[in-house]
Amino acid sequence: MTAKHAIAITVNEKRYEAVAEPRMSLADFLRDQLGLTGTHLGCEQGICGSCTVLFNGETVRACLLLAVQANGGVILTVEGLAARAESGQRLHPIQQGFLETAGFQCGFCTPGFLMTVYELLKENSSPSEDEIRERLSGNLCRCTGYQNIIDAVLWAAERLRGQASR
Ligand code: FES
Ligand code: FES
Question: Does residue 25 line the site of ligand 1, with CB under 6 A?
């Protein structure tokens, strides 16, 4: 039997103490141990980006990181995004942007896109279409054809700039 490891991790501003198998991925840990199933698993080999979360402020593929490697870290998942909405709003502006522009269809890829966009707009409040395309090049979507996702990011960027100037 493989020994489990105790880990302490902060996810969406809540601290968790748990045990994980040495080979358990962060994605499986979030989904199976914490019940945070908004982080989706597609390829499970680092290609599709659907499992993207923020780890200590930077995007990572949660299928490639082991839960034990995240010990002591701070994670933001898609479930934590809505908690960062403007007061009185149910959705974060990035989520709202995807809704406004039909930036998703089946929605499987969407959580990963949202987290990548969150990182992008933290770094660059006014990205060009080319910059958006480049940053999102590691996230795959089989449904939308991408233009609506670009429009969603532009919509969200404008909304966030408006918030910042108030
Ligand atoms: S499930 Fe992690 S990159 Fe595809
Ligand atoms: S909306 Fe279906 S895979 Fe992107």
Answer: no
Name every protein residue with a CB atom under 6 angstroms from any ligand 2 atom. Answer: 104-109, 141-144
Q: How many CB atoms lie within 10 A of CB 152?
A: 27
Q: Which domains does the chain have, with CATH numbers?
A: 5-79 (3.10.20.30), 85-165 (1.10.150.120)
pLDDT above 80: residue 166: no
**What is the CA 101 to chain-centroid distance, rounded?**
19
Q: Two tokens at 133?
A: 């395309």
pLDDT tens-digit map of 52-88: 999 999 999 999 999 999 999 999 999 999 888 888 8
Counting ligand 1 atoms within 8 A of each CB, the residue from 48, 55, 115, 142 with the most, and so the one to mutate, is: 48
d(CA 11, CA 9): 6
104-119: average pLDDT: 98
pLDDT of residue 100: 97
Instruction: Please indicate whether residue 43, judged by its CB atom, sits closer than 6 Å to ligand 1.
Output: yes
Tell me if 25 sits within 8 A of 61, measured CB to CB: no
Which of the ligands is closest to the CA of residue 50? Answer: 1
Please state, for a pLDDT cut of 70, what percent of the chain lies above it: 99
